[in-house]
Amino acid sequence: MAIPVGVLGAGSFGTCLAVLCAGKHDVVLWARRPETAEAINRERRNPHYLSDLRLPEAVRATSDLGDAVADRELVICAVPSHGVRDVMGEASAWIHPDAIVISTVKGIELGTWKRMDQVLAELLDPRIHPRLVFLSGPSFAREIADGRPTAVTLACEVEGYAISVQESISTPSFRCYTSRDVVGAELGGALKNVIAIAVGICDGLGLGLNARAGLMTRGLREITRLGTRMGADPMTFLGLAGMGDLVLTCTGDLSRNRRVGMQLAAGRSLAEIVGATSEVAEGVRTTRAACALAELHGVEMPISEGVRRVLDGELSPRAAVELLMTRQLRSENE
């Protein structure tokens, strides 16, 4: 059954989800800049992201938040993590209390160190809280847009709402699984970006496949250690929102975070790397948040700390690798 859908954020992921949902539903896509919304409506293409993709007539773009979310049964938040508080705070005045809100954001808020589920719970009407659903898992926007097979997790504390979303947005090429572990899905989706920067550094230095596999495995251990301390189900990190997303982001050529690591290894400064792209590599911000959460919860995360020190200019990429490899020997289960 067709339902009205509002998608907030006209980046790559918001655009591909608008196209995905337009196969079944009436979709309004919110873009921050009026000229972007006008170009989409006029040319049926997003001029900045996935610009070769034709948007169906069922997608209408707007730069008016109220227009995008008022009376929408399904509201999808696909803005960068640093924009969630402002955008969703403003949008909350128009979101109907019976709406289901889906967050696709993979990040942690700087300063507060809050997950996106915690931020949204602060901003939205309490009546919406049971209907907050969090999409995570291995999902490059480009491949979703191209109709390539993709599997993701929909996490919601009230699983019935995740099932409702599952039925609404699944297609023959986009398969959704459900979960009740919101904390695990949120942390898995955010923290894998940090490990992807580390793997990018490893690949950029030409350290080989053994090193890559070791980093990914020990990185997953770090994520699981912090996640379980914060109340997540450890099994979540073996699923799509954990290992699945980690493998994709650490090895895929479309991974922004892996590219950041590779460019750091090539000697470019973080300022140069960030300034050269309009796309957001969430791992840069999340690294600092991960280290702050690790300290707060008394959890050791040496890979994340090494990445932070490289990003902050305290260590060279090669020195960070050497530091990891010469740490005190210990049990694998630690």
CATH class designation of the largest domain: Alpha Beta
Tell me the count of domains.
2
| Count, helices | 15
Mean pLDDT: 96
CATH architecture of the largest domain: 3-Layer(aba) Sandwich
Query: Can you tell me the residue ranges where pLDDT is under 50 for at least 5 consecutive residues?
Result: none
- β-strand amount: 5-15%
Textual characterization of the structure:
The protein is an alpha/beta fold. It has two domains: 4-180, Rossmann fold (3-Layer(aba) Sandwich), CATH 3.40.50; 192-325, N-(1-d-carboxylethyl)-l-norvaline Dehydrogenase, domain 2, CATH 1.10.1040.10. It is built from 15 helices and eight strands. Strands 3-2-1-4-5-6-7-8 form an eight-stranded mixed sheet, with helices on both faces. Helix 2 links the parallel strand 2 (26-30) and strand 3. The longest helix has 23 residues, at 182-204. The model has no long low-confidence stretch (mean pLDDT 96).
